Each structure stands twice: as structure tokens, then as C-alpha cells.
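INFO batch 0412 | record 1 of 1 | parsing
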Amino acid sequence: LEIVSGTIPQEIFSMTNLRYLYLSSNEYTGAIPSDIGKLVNLRGLSFYDNNFSEVPPELWTLTNLTYLNLGFNDFSGPIPSEIGQLINMTTLYLYYNQFSSIPKELWSLSNMINIDLSGNNISGTIPSGIENFTNLTNLSIWGNTLSGELPPELYNLVNLSFLNLSRNEFIGTIHPSIGNLVNLTYLYLYQ
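INFO prediction complete | emitting C-alpha cells
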């Protein structure tokens, strides 16, 4: 298909048996339609590389989602705390938007394997709770304005194989406990 623009056809939201909906690399704009909440059987959802600017509350009711990619859009403000309702989430990609903060509810999603929040406007410190991500293998939060010291709990995520904390404003030294991350194959800490 050629690049699609305009609005998502309403008929898609009557396809309630859909498990996977990928409408990436188009030119959809504005708000994701609230009718997305009708697709209660979705496991995977990607609106990657569009021009969406608003996430409706109904998206956070799709509790069967395991994969969500909203990267390369125009979302801004705090990542909504309702994200904590996505209890089955394993992969979350919110990179290259203008999100400004991480809600503590994100850390309750203990099934997470992949998280990429890179290239946003996220400030503050890495919130406590990151230790709940015991299954996490990939974490990328580069290109934000996160600051403070790296939390010691980070070094307990022994399943990590990819860690990118670069281009933030962290201070302090790298703790010797980084040696706990024995499965790391990629480590990025450059400024």
C-alpha cells in the first residue's frame, strides 16, 4: 500500500476479533480514535511513525496487549499513569515523542521484556520500582534529560542484555554492582 493519511476507517474498529493491528509508517494525525477500545482482543498494536498527538483513555483498557509501539509520533506530556492497566505488556516502544515523565505505574508491569523510551523529553530521576522488571532484557532511555544517580536496583536486572542510558544528565560513578549484569551484550553510557 501507499502511505495512508487522514483518519483510520471506522470499519476497522468493528473487527473485534483482531489480535494484531499494525498501521505504522502512515500519515495519520490528531488523536488515536477512542473506538480503539472496542478491539479488546488485541495482543499487538503499532501506530509507529505517524503524526498522532493524543492517546485516548480507551487504549489503556486493552489489557490483553503484550506489544505496543507508539514510537515516532507527536505525543507529549507525562506518559499516562493508566499505562499500569496493561498488565500483560511485554514490549513497550514510546521512543521519539515528547513525553515528559515516567509514571510510577509503569514499574508495576512486571512482565516487561523490552522498553524503549528514547528520544523524548523525560526529566527527573529513574523512579524507584525498576527492580520489578526482573524479566527485562532490553532497556533504552537514551536522549532524555534524566538526572541524578543511577538507582542501585538497576544492577539487579540480571536478565538485561541491552542497556542504553546515554545522552542524559546522570551524575556520580558507575557502581561496582554493574558486574551483576552478566548477560549484558550491549552497554551504552556515552554523553
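INFO post-check: The CA atoms of residues 60 and 85 lie 6 Å apart.
INFO record closed
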